[in-house]
Design a protein that fits this description.
This protein is mainly beta. Helix content is about 0%, strand content about 45%. It contains one helix and 28 strands. The strands form seven sheets. It has a five-stranded antiparallel sheet with strand order 20-21-22-23-24, with no helix packed on it. Strands 4-5-6-7 form a four-stranded antiparallel sheet, with no helix packed on it. The longest helix is centred in the first third of the chain and has 4 residues, at about 50. The protein is globular, with a radius of gyration of 24 Å. The termini are far apart. The relative contact order is 0.06.
Length: about 350
């Protein structure tokens, strides 16, 4: 059943675009406009009258499970509210919020379930696509909250959280999203973990624990007990990044104690427990908010094919593997381009 006034359109035709005007004198966004196209972007309609001419919009979200469901957040410095559309952005309903949203996490299967993280480190949940919200837990570490996965976790309505306890220490807990009281929390790992270290990805859960001042990396496979990850002898990691958990293997990038602008790639067994060296000295750069960018590219649609930039004698060279890292070879430039002109590339 469609809402009153809703349009029936091909979802592939609809494009929504949010534009903002940033005032450099005041140092903030002072205007925003919402645009909608129903003809693949050939023409656009301005929707400011439908969302409120005085509203300043900050973010636009599309439900990953239902493209007809749209959510817009207003600038919390002006007002704390959200606008919801159930008809691909043709019409909107406004709902006031009692908290400021910093980020949203949509459930991978349930289209109306959303987790919202606030500026004061509180996590809220809505099971009505933002119409009503309920507090789940406080002192949640930023970006360290995850939905459960059906077939791995006992309950579809369960969430994984890293919470700050005291003195910079954290704990890993799980609980049901609508009943996360002290009596209903579970602690899959009983002790404290290093802050900002929880990663829940597919069949694996990763944490870090401080042992004698050193970070020890632990992994849980299919939600079973945690075990220390077994790295090759003489590996002294000062940082570890989980790159991929596809096909029951963990691809990790590890920066050794002597490295600064490069990482080594390692591949694990199916449990994510034992790791072998895959490629050394892969180029890395610092990203926004201290996120690390590893120069590794997985070719879409072709399993096992990766490209990577590697430092060789102070030069950056591109290597390719066709068997998921078992063998690498230098990527050779073509002799001619698409127009048949010769390509001059000296190794």
């Amino acid at each position: 059943m469609r809402p009153n006034g809703a349009e029936i359109q091909n979802p592939n035709q609809v494009i929504l675009m949010l534009t903002k005007y940033y005032d450099f004198n005041s140092g903030r966004v002072t205007e925003s406009s919402l645009w909608r196209s129903t003809d693949y972007g050939t023409t656009y309609e301005k929707l400011n009258e439908k969302v409120g001419t005085k509203s300043i919009l900050s973010y636009l979200y599309v439900s990953p499970n239902n493209k007809r469901k749209i959510m817009l957040l207003t600038d919390p410095e002006v007002e704390s509210s959200l606008l919801i559309s159930l008809d691909e952005g043709a019409s909107y309903q406004k709902h006031s919020l009692g908290f400021d949203i910093l980020s949203l996490l949509f459930h991978p299967e349930q289209e109306d379930w959303i987790l919202a993280y606030s500026h004061d480190q509180k996590l809220y949940v809505s099971v009505e696509f933002g119409r009503r919200w309920q507090l789940v837990h406080g002192n949640v570490v930023p970006n360290r909250f995850y939905w459960s996965r059906l077939g791995l976790d006992k309950d579809q309505g369960m969430i994984h959280l890293e919470i700050t306890v005291s003195d910079g220490r954290s704990q890993y807990i799980t609980c049901k999203l609508q009943n996360c009281s002290d009596g209903n929390k579970n602690k899959p790992f009983p002790g404290f973990i290093i802050s900002n270290s929880l990663v829940v990805q597919d069949e694996y859960v990763f944490i870090q624990v401080s042992v004698s001042g050193q970070a020890v990396h632990y992994v849980s496979y299919k939600r079973n007990a945690f075990y220390p990850m077994k790295l090759p002898k003489y590996t002294l990691p000062k940082d570890l990044q989980i790159i991929s958990t596809d096909e029951n293997q963990v691809l990790a990038a590890i920066q050794d104690s002597h490295q600064n602008d490069s990482y080594n790639l390692y591949m694990s067994d199916y449990r994510g427990l034992f790791f072998t060296l895959m490629l050394e000295d892969v180029v890395s750069t610092g990203g926004p908010e201290d996120n690390v960018m590893i120069d590794l590219y997985e070719v879409a649609g072709i399993k096992g094919v990766f490209l990577s930039n590697k430092v060789v004698e102070n030069q950056v060279k591109t290597y390719i593997t066709y068997n998921k890292g078992r063998d690498w070879r230098l990527l050779k430039a073509p002799t001619t381009d698409l127009q048949g002109n010769k390509v001059y590339c000296e190794q």
